[in-house]
Amino acid sequence: MSGVDEAVPTEDGARLWATRAGAGTPVVCCHGGPGLWDALGDVAGLLADLATVHRWDQRGCGRSQRCGPYSVARSVADLDAVRRHFGLHRMALLGHSYGAGLALQYALAHPEHVSKLVYVSGNGIDSRDTWRSAYRRNLRANLGTHLARWETLGRRRRTEAEEREWCVLQFSADYSDRERALEQAEAAATPWFGVNHECNATINAEVDRTSGTPELRAACERLHVPVLIVHGAEDIRPDWALDSLEQALPRVSRTVLNGAGHLPWVEEPNGFRSAVGDFLAGLSA
Fold this sequence. Notes:
Layout: E1 6-9, E2 15-22, E3 25-30, H1 41-46, E4 51-56, H2 72-85, E5 91-96, H3 98-109, E6 114-120, H4 132-143, H5 147-154, H6 160-172, H7 181-188, H8 197-210, H9 214-221, E7 227-232, H10 243-248, E8 252-257, H11 264-267, H12 269-280
Parallel strand pairs: 3-4, 3-5, 5-6, 6-7, 7-8
Antiparallel strand pairs: 1-2, 2-4
């Protein structure tokens, strides 16, 4: 679902792309990556009659200005710039994958501005080493006959066309319906804005250093914002990685959607809309 494109200024002079659509409770989305772009238009469409959905491209990504610096703290500050630009005092946050972690970090830093948090297909707060090997096994298994091509492309310097092909193959592993996976991955990569690999490497290294720390768990234990964890049962990232986050949060509910992978709103749109809509309306904890 599309709205009017807007340019959000940050205090250090960067310009971020953003848009909003719908009517009702303000919800601000945080897309996955890091280094990718907003692909949550379908989420906005599902929630259009329930919420005003604000979407944005993170710094250096998609339609936003391609400039650093890249860090979680910088991304949190940029998200706050989006909040101020749209005149929101409090907002619900909906983050997907890496964006779920970013939304959580924002809630930890600015709980006064967050009414609720929808944590979609994130990876919890334990060290990523606890689940990464399982994820890699599942990724390779889902790639199936495309594994050799994906590995070949991954080992060499790629043209832009090859970069898109490599990403589409990797994206395809994220869907439960293997017969439609490539088609759905093509849709996710259209329009194509390219991957910011510098952003990806820099922020992922920071997340690796900070995940699994006692400080992060303690901060989650102090967070009294209501949180809904949503996860597809067939996501190649193991759902048990979310147990530590669920155990740490004092106000949390959790929904697992059968028949869905990493993008549950694509494969189980009715279940996703029902779970998220009820949560935003206050019909679940």
